[in-house]
Amino acid sequence: MDWEEFSTRPVWEYELKLEPFELKLGHFVRKMDRPWQETDFPLQGVLVESLELKRWFQEHCRWVIVDLDRSPNKYRPARFRTPQPSGHTDGEDSHAIQILRRSPINQLTLTRAISEYQRLDRQADELIEQLERSGNMDVPTAARTVDQVAEAMEENPAALVWLTRIKRQDRYTAQHCINVAILCMGLAVGLEWSRREIREVGLAGLLHDLGKVKVDGEILRKPGRLTTGEFDQIKEHCRYGYEMLLEDELVSRNVAEAVLCHHEQPDGKGYPQGLIGAAIPPMARVVAVIDAYDAITSTRSYDPARSHHEALGILWKRRGAQFDTHTVESLIRFMGWVTPGTLVRLNTGLLAVVLESPCQRGLRPLVALLSEGGGAWNLGRSVDLASEESGQGAHSLRIEEVLPDGHQGIDIRKLSDQLAAARTGD
Q1: With left for phi above 0 and alpha for psi between -120 and 50, is residue 285 left, alpha or beta?
Q2: What is the distance between the alpha carbons of residues 224 and 230, in angstroms, rounded to a whole number?
Q3: Between 20 and 30 A from 294 (CA), which of 29, 31, 165, 251?
Q4: Could you say which of 335, 366, 396 is where a domain stops?
Q5: Strand 64-67 and strand 46-47: pairing?
Q6: Is 386 in contact with 359 (CB distance < 8 Å)?
Q7: Are residues 49 and 144 in the same domain?
Q8: pLDDT, tens digit, 9 for 90 and up, residues 63-116
Q9: What does pTM read for this prediction?
Q10: What are phi and psi of 340, to 5 degrees?
């Protein structure tokens, strides 16, 4: 670039002030919020070319300034991107974080999603069985499975997220790991992470609780309040999992650290290291929020399932203290207030399941009515609540209540099979 051209350009075109978690490999850091002389970096700046260096900035800085002209990686967070030409709408509905509500659920997408979910289901079972039997795990196969699910996530995220609403208490451990992996990858897609990062956070989600195989099963299954000693034993699962992953040269440091730190909290009251704020790795922040969301919406031995609404409300109240604020807000934007697969009660008392929920509709999504017969719940006709409201005024159908997964024994897996078999593409 010609020096005269460079010197007359606005600084904001080539310099970005970022939070350290926004740094990417290939960014050139020119300034930071601490004296440059206190580091071993050259005075002209440093290229972030390793995960270790990226983590250094995340642990030691509150902000950095990146010089894009000297950066091989030209990535800009969304807030720095050039506005679209006049006439092009790039509002909330078209942002990447809204991908879930632009993704249709139809016969094709749900059939593909069921196939990938079953593959991940089998892999989770095999991993748990291997770990319990021999203490070993087939990480390469798990990683390949996550890769395939990540590809499916880019094509049909709504159908995969629909399947995370499958909840069976007798299979909680495996299903929880599967759901955390899927939702971590979905949120990472919405956050516009790289393909490598999407796959890594998915693998971290799948393996985040693997250290629990070394914790006394009686403690894990205890229905009542844990003693201090018992809780201390459970907290060790983060270290156990981390140490197991460090022994496998095929597992990246990012994945291992996300497993180690997924119970750390921004206020420093988490474990096992008591990390504060930006010192918590970005992948660990995502796994922490998704882990809590899926746990809250599942029936556990000591706590009944809460609804999607209740779960988001709990995360919102605890943002900035127990959970990273940006990640919580991103999850809410990604999932929406009603998400595919959510069970709802309408103002008429009818039960329904949400099929699609474009962001501009708010609480007026496309739903399928449910009817009970023969000891099971079945899908009925589809109803567009937005059209109902505009067409029938005060007497229109609307959502009265968002219900927990599995409400009244409704089996989302059976509804999924019915939908895949009966519904044609839109």
Answers
A1: alpha
A2: 11
A3: 251
A4: 335
A5: unpaired
A6: no
A7: no
A8: 999 988 788 887 877 666 544 333 333 334 447 788 887 777 777 778 878 888
A9: 0.74
A10: -50, 130
